[in-house]
Design a protein that fits this description.
Rossmann fold, 7-stranded mixed beta sheet, alpha/beta, RNA-binding, Ribosomal Protein L25, Chain P, 12 helices, Glutamyl-tRNA Synthetase, domain 2
RNA sequence: UGCCCGAUGGUGUAAUGGUAGCACAGCAGACUCUGAAUCUGCUUGUCUAGGUUCAAAUCCUAGUCGGGCAACCA
């Protein structure tokens, strides 16, 4: 992976001998699905370990049993693997360290560096005060070490209700950094934990747990997002006070993408209110959503590399992601023909009842990928907007009296336009040049327009889901009012298209380029009787192409 | 309001005191059996004001603007 300010620091650490190896970690809380923002972190954490020949731990930060669910654990692992990363044996749980964390808390109390506080959330808020004024010292701050030890023991023994007491680090009620004003490090939660069951009714807070986890695991560079910057002094204080090995925390800017949201809470809201089908709805910025949409791990990784790692907050244009998706798909996706808005064409000069097969390349630029056969007959479908009765200038496609190439088949000329009683075009009649079999005329005449087609007799109906951006606003989270007011009502259009017959046997996840339209992949909803395709991303379209 | 962080074309990023570069997007053209891909060219930028220096995007000072922090969440 390319370099960034964190790698500059690592280079210096390695050169100075401060570290001889690099250990990072990706520490998700199992409380939701991973999204493209996590992908950025995963690429950084694992990519950095890979670059320096170190290791990256996958660690579940499961310190809050009321927020977490093992439902998410499998999904997280699947997503990290799909992205192409491997934690090997380095799978850890914060909850496995609960005993050691408890001992550390006791040690802090014994040092006179932590105390049990009986103030309610609201009461302590008053003592903590506001940033520009000093806080007040709670009375419990001067409790004896013995009494603190006893109270903490009772907290652990379950003698108190949730919220009755909390263990606080005794730091500085006058610190300009609010996180240093005697932060809570243990709270009472009578909740069973997926891993430790009912063994504990007190659980460590993030600030206390995370630095210990990193220290215990020998992490060298603990990478997180910018909002944790003000937590770093606390991270350092705890490890220094306990005389433990101190990893260094470095912060980088989280990813924001145009036309979507990245907040787990808001994403959950969309799922719960059924505004999307589920976490893996192809419109979601989740990793499973992108996978279902047809994005490839290679494209997502290339995107993450491209956007880089900085401390500058930014809003990245989703076009950049789509660019990498197209770039990868262009390389790997076999070409097929599908008509999404069918208009029937009768080749009047083609014998009734006759059909033939054409051999078309899977990828014109990659002959080594072979060919497939596509049936042709007298009646075919073409795309409705590939015909204009009164063509605008620079319209290269079919119009009355003009000749176009049916991709890989024949040159045809439109002779008649058939309309219904309302004047709607329902059918076209064309003649074909039998000598142009394969698509080229022996006389070498140039035909500018080439359009795709599917035989009416052989084509298969398929459900095609056309996805567009989820929101109409570039930055829905920054808009006034409810972000859901900015949902794009046209983010999903379901249509029935006609696909070339070979496409009917596509398996879920198979990716194709529907020529002249875009990249599509077979959805898991696909069955033998009903193929379902998702539009991953459209082809780039020259602005001069007007329909 | 206190502390912390940041600011380079429309967007994302590089330049580590010495030619402001790359990618995306946009525009124009070439090529083309995909109006795709490919190729060529073009437009557009160092937040402001001072200072240090032979030389400043880079260092210093002040300001402006943006963000973060005031859960018994992570």
């Amino acid at each position: 992976m390319s370099s960034n300010f964190i790698h500059d620091i690592i280079d210096a650490d390695l050169a100075s001998g401060k570290h001889s190896e690099v250990v990072t970690r990706f520490p998700p809380e199992p409380n939701g699905y991973l999204h493209i923002g996590h992908a950025k972190a995963i690429c950084l954490d694992f990519g950095t370990a890979l670059k320096y020949g170190g290791r990256c731990h996958l660690r579940y930060d499961d310190t809050n049993p009321t927020a977490e669910d093992t439902e998410y654990v499998g999904a997280i692992e699947e997503d990290v693997r799909w992205l192409g990363f491997d934690w090997g044996k380095n799978l850890f749980w914060a909850s496995d360290y609960f005993d050691r964390m408890y001992e550390c808390a006791v040690e802090l109390i014994q040092m006179g560096k932590a105390y049990v506080c009986d103030l309610s959330v609201d009461a302590f808020k008053e003592y903590r005060g506001v940033p520009h004024l000093p806080g007040k010292e709670p009375a419990g701050r001067n409790r004896s070490i013995e009494e603190n030890l006893e109270l903490f023991e009772k907290m652990k023994a379950g003698e108190f209700a949730d919220g009755a007491y909390v263990l606080r680090a005794k730091i500085d009620m006058n610190s300009p950094n609010l996180h240093m004003r005697d932060p809570a490090i243990y709270r009472i939660k009578h909740a069973s934990h997926h891993n430790t069951g009912d063994k504990w009714c007190i659980y460590p807070m993030y600030d206390f747990a995370h630095c210990l986890e990193d220290s215990i695991e020998g992490v060298t560079h603990s990478l997180c997002t910018l909002e944790f910057e003000v937590h770093r002094p606390l991270y350092d204080w705890i490890l220094e006070t306990l005389s433990l090995y101190q990893p260094h925390q470095y912060e980088f800017a989280r990813l924001n993408l145009t036309y979507t949201i990245m907040s787990k809470r808001k994403l959950l809201e969309l799922v719960k209110e059924k505004l999307v089908s589920n976490w893996d709805d192809p419109r979601m910025p989740t990793i499973c959503g992108m996978r279902r949409r047809g994005y490839t791990p290679e494209a997502v990784r290339a995107f993450c590399t491209e956007i880089g790692i900085t401390k500058t907050e930014s809003l990245t244009d989703v076009a950049l992601l789509e660019h990498h998706v197209r770039t990868d798909l262009n390389e790997i996706a076999p070409r097929r023909m599908a008509v999404l808005d069918p208009l029937k064409v009768v080749i009047t000069t083609y014998p009734e009842g006759q059909s033939e097969e054409f051999e078309l390349p899977n990828h014109p630029q990659k002959p080594e990928t072979g060919t497939r056969t596509v049936p042709f007959a007298r009646e075919i479908f073409i795309e409705r907007d590939d015909f204009m009765e009164e063509p605008v200038k620079k319209f290269f496609r079919l119009a009355p009296g003009t000749e176009v190439r049916l991709r890989g088949a024949y040159l045809v000329t439109c002779t008649d336009v058939i309309k219904d009683a309302n004047g709607n075009i329902v059918e076209l009649h064309c003649t074909h040049d039998p000598d142009s079999r394969g698509g080229n005329a022996p006389d070498g005449r140039k035909v500018k327009g080439t359009i795709h087609w599917v035989s009416a007799q052989h084509g298969i109906k398929a459900e095609v889901r056309l996805y567009d951006r989820l929101f109409t606003s570039e930055n829905p989270a920054a808009e006034e009012g409810d972000f859901k007011d900015y949902l794009n009502p046209d983010s999903l259009k379901v249509i029935t298209g006609i696909i070339e017959p070979g496409l009917a046997s596509a398996n879920p996840g198979d990716k194709f380029q529907f020529e002249r339209i875009g990249y599509f992949c077979a959805d898991p909803d696909t069955t033998e009787s009903k193929p379902v395709f998702n539009r991953t991303v459209g082809l780039r379209e020259a602005a001069s192409k007007q329909a």
